[in-house]
Automatic annotation (TrEMBL):
Listed PANTHER family: RNA POLYMERASE ECF-TYPE SIGMA FACTO (PTHR43133), RNA POLYMERASE SIGMA FACTOR HI_1459-RELATED (PTHR43133:SF8)
Similarity comment: family membership: Belongs to the sigma-70 factor family.
Species this chain originates from: Staphylococcus petrasii
Tagged with keyword Transcription: yes
Name this protein carries in UniProt: RNA polymerase sigma factor SigS
Amino acid sequence: MTQNLKQLEQAFINFQQSRNRREQEQLFTFIVSQLHSSLSIKFKQMGVSASDIEDLIQELFIRTYLSLQTFDFTLNIPFEHYLNCMVRSLRNDFWRKRYAEANRNESLINEYVVRYKWNKSSNQTEAYCLTQAQSEQIRESLLYLSDLERSVAQLMLSDYSPTEIARKLNIKDKVVYNSIQRCKMKMRKYLNQHYC
């Protein structure tokens, strides 16, 4: 294991000192192959789900690549220590982001519930107001009907059937049906003139 770490540390130093792009690519590929499995294990031990591990490892390799350009190897601080600090930082960022997403999702759900309830009550109020306005318009249109037509229309609005209306007003069914037709025509004309 220590031999592997020394090899890795030497690969870090060689990467930084190399000016050849192709050689840097080969060294970084070696670094990635050496670190990938150990990083997977570290992130699994930290409780990160398997679907997120690859994303975190890629993010760590990007950070490693960028930091290798400027890391000072003369301070005798092993790059592995710096790498462990990056792993810890990345893990903390991951869990902070997860926590923030969970809170945001919860507040979005709560906001939706509140908005839904408010819209529901608002729609009920609006529907009630529209119904009241329409009832008022119909009552106004009744004023332009004859007495018989008005009586028939009021009974129709009270959910009486034409046969029941005929019995109640002591008139023939045919007269009721004709009255209903005249009411519809007159009321439609009135409503179109005044409200459309």
